[in-house]
Write a structure and sequence with these properties.
Elements: H1 3-20, H2 31-35, E1 42-46, H3 50-61, H4 67-80, E2 101-106, E3 112-118, H5 124-134, E4 139-141, H6 142-151, H7 162-172, E5 189-194, E6 200-206, E7 227-230, E8 234-240, H8 242-247, H9 250-259, H10 264-281, E9 291-297, E10 302-308, E11 312-317, E12 320-325, E13 328-330
Parallel strand pairs: 3-4, 10-13
Antiparallel strand pairs: 1-5, 1-11, 2-3, 2-6, 5-6, 7-8, 8-9, 9-10, 11-12
The structure holds N-hydroxy-L-asparagine (SD4).
Length: 331
Amino acid sequence: MTSRRNFIKTTSFASAAMLINKSTSAKELPAEELTNQTNKPIVLSTWNFGLKANEAAWEILSKNGKAIDAVEAGVKIPEGDPTERSVGYGGRPDRDGRVTLDACIMDEQANIGSVAALEHIKHPISVARAVMEKTPHVMLVGDGALQFALSQGFKKENLLVEDSEKEWKEWLKNSNYKPIVNIENHDTIGMIALDANGDLSGACTTSGMAFKMHGRVGDSPIIGAGLYVDNEIGAATATGHGEEVIRIAGCHLVVELMRQGKTPEQACIEAVNRVVKLTANRKKNLKDIQVGFIALNKKGEYGSYCVQSGFNYAVHDSSGNKLINADSHLK
Ligand code: SD4
């Protein structure tokens, strides 16, 4: 297999060893003992901006904080950054010039909350969390989600920044909706974490595909598609063309594959293979599609896979914070 995978194995073994006993080096421990250890805490998130997001999550995880608090704090970093043009404030608008946001969150007890097509609120992930904690429901959309957010004290703001507005006006000249693979790069942030207590949680937030139809909802706020957590098994999150992730109930599939004994990377590979197969069956061009998964299991082992090269993700554990290029089906 690739040297990257070996690198991953080496680093997770090394961190496991550090957790076992600070004065014992990895070499002194028998391999079976190392593999029985859990690499925790650990947090993974999609794309380059995952590095900064991981730092915020690590602040909480490294102090024995809860994974659910870590993932919310982590994804709020790109949400609040107007220069990140695919998440939260500063996100690209739909074809009507409206910034509509999708987000969801899931904790170790299978509590879930989600918002879709939410406008004017900078941190949709926190609204999703409020849906989870303060309503009898799991998902609120559009105006209802906005009304709920306002009732909870969230501030109504203009999220359309100048650069996004300019791009949208440029796009209007041809109004051709054809997302170009990896051009919408650095988009959705999906984050999954295992805390020091051994609990898993995840969060996912995005402004969705740029210039989508008004009202279009992608995979990111859909539990089971853009995110799934099973505290007995593992967690997964997705990025890329949401329609394709929804088609295979992607993240639920990845977690179920881990339940069947697959490693996180094997599970991501098999889920991507499903996308590849369905795309061929539907006689669509795979070159027009990007889907990437990242996954983490209960032992703190992780992996990823995507359709096209160019997808990366950030991992922070006790050995540090690093960016990893995901292996891809198309090279
Ligand atoms: C969506 N999955 O709305 C998101 C966008 C994304 O790479 O991740 N694009 O379909």
